[in-house]
Amino acid sequence: MKEENFNQLLRNPVQEPSDTLFKSILDESIYEIMKKIDQNFITTGIDLEWRYYKDGKAWLGKATCKKKTIVWISIWANFIKASFYFTEKTRPGVLGLSFNEEIKSTFSGARPIGKLIPLIVNIKDEESFQDFKTLLNYKKNLR
Prior knowledge:
alpha+beta, five-stranded antiparallel β-sheet, DUF3788 family protein, DUF3788, single chain, Yope Regulator, Chain: A
């Protein structure tokens, strides 16, 4: 089993994220996942805006639909991290979805940060990409 590499990429404030940059810094399989994520955003009407955040010293992608933040994306050496945030009111709906039981268990016990409860998906293969899509569609369609 391949050991996880928890090195966050995109740390240079003057090097804006682009497809060319992703292709040069990511493993081929992770690059393909990033292309699938981008394509999924396009087909579902979600906009992805990259911005450098000085507090975290890294670029983060903010995915929005009609001003509503759906998910935050960060690029790591061996995976793409998708950070969703839900409320206590929406937690039961999330737990009713079909996705990875380990992620679901972590989310069910997660403490709120303010009023929001974090749910993190490390996307590194087709299975985790499907979990990401499930959560993305649920979050996008919340009212």
